[in-house]
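Input (structure):
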């Protein structure tokens, strides 16, 4: 129904307008009595074969919603009802910010991909904490944190510390985002020494808590082998718990969309099917260097159960979807869970 009725209508609108409209409709829909029960009846599928115990947490299934979709934690309960095993909010910055000028979100229909240059647009950590404080769902929530655009890299650690401190009691794990291509100079924080300093600082702050939360690092797919070796060395040395592989790519190689259209869109991170192979390659590389105690969340180009299983076979413990959710609709979660459950039963 989504692909034949709702998607054609939504795709007549700009990508960001369609996103906001979908959020508003879901908010209205879930205020109607019994909607949650109907949605769960339509999309429910759970099985003991899907359960995962990782990071000191119990995931009812390994399918998560990637950061960037529900930036402000507006629909955590809704995504729980749609069958996600976990929801990653953000990227959250200390202060609210508008992000980059519009238009900043674009579909590449021929490639089943999206280009975004949103720029960490969010309502700021205080408002997001207010929302999380009121949530009733028990679904696992990850907090993806970053720095404000106006904060120079030399002061970035303070931004990450502020977001970490404010969110600590309201999320189940953290993801440190230094890999978005849409905040100027942010990716410089992936360099060895700045990254090591940042992660060590957050790890030390975490250890001072009564209940420390797992910390993961989100990396770019554009890192070369030498940089990936540095990442492995850093995560081992700092003792963080995992990696999210990967963020969007700045590459525009092997796309079917006309070059003129791509050039007209301009800068931004590319997600969707073109990212699938590279993200899987990075997952496989990381798993070859890191033992099973280290958690890898695989994200990039997952549209089917086969895509998700490919990530799991490469070494991912959990997977996340974003662009596949946009193109395939809510039914993708149930379809992937069925496929994974059957795979692990065989």
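Output (sequence):
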């Amino acid at each position: 129904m989504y692909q034949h009725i709702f998607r054609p209508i939504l795709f007549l609108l700009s990508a960001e307008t369609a996103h906001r409209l979908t959020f508003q409709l879901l908010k209205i829909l879930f205020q109607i009595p019994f909607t949650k029960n109907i949605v769960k009846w339509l999309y429910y599928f759970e099985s003991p074969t899907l359960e995962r115990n990782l990071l000191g947490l119990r995931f009812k299934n390994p399918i998560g919603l990637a950061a960037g979709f529900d930036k402000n934690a507006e629909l955590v309960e809704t995504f729980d009802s749609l069958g996600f095993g976990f929801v990653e909010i953000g990227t959250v910055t200390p202060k609210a910010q508008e992000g980059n000028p519009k238009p900043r979100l674009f579909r590449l229909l021929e490639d089943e991909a999206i280009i975004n240059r949103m720029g960490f647009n969010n309502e700021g950590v205080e408002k997001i904490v207010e929302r999380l404080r009121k949530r009733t769902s028990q679904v696992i929530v990850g907090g993806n944190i970053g720095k404000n655009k106006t904060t120079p890299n030399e002061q970035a650690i303070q931004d990450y510390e502020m977001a970490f401190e404010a969110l600590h009691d309201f999320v189940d794990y953290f993801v440190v985002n230094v890999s978005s291509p849409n905040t100027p100079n942010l990716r410089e924080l992936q360099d060895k020494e700045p990254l090591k300093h940042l992660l060590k600082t957050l790890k030390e702050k975490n250890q001072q808590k009564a209940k420390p939360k797992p910390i993961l690092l989100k990396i770019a797919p554009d890192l070369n082998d030498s940089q990936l070796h540095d990442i492995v060395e850093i995560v081992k040395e700092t003792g963080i718990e995992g990696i999210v592989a990967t963020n969007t790519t700045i590459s525009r190689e092997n796309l079917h969309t006309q070059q003129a259209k791509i050039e007209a869109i301009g800068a931004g991170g590319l997600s969707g099917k073109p990212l699938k192979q590279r993200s899987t390659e990075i997952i496989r590389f990381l798993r070859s260097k890191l033992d099973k105690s280290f958690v890898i969340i695989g994200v990039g180009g997952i549209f089917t159960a086969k895509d998700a299983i490919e990530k799991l076979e490469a070494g991912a413990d959990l997977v996340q979807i974003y662009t596949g959710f946009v193109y395939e609709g809510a039914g993708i979660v149930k379809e992937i869970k069925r496929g994974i459950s059957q795979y692990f039963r065989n």
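Notes: The chain is about 40% helix and 15% strand. The first strand starts at residue 52 and ends at 54.
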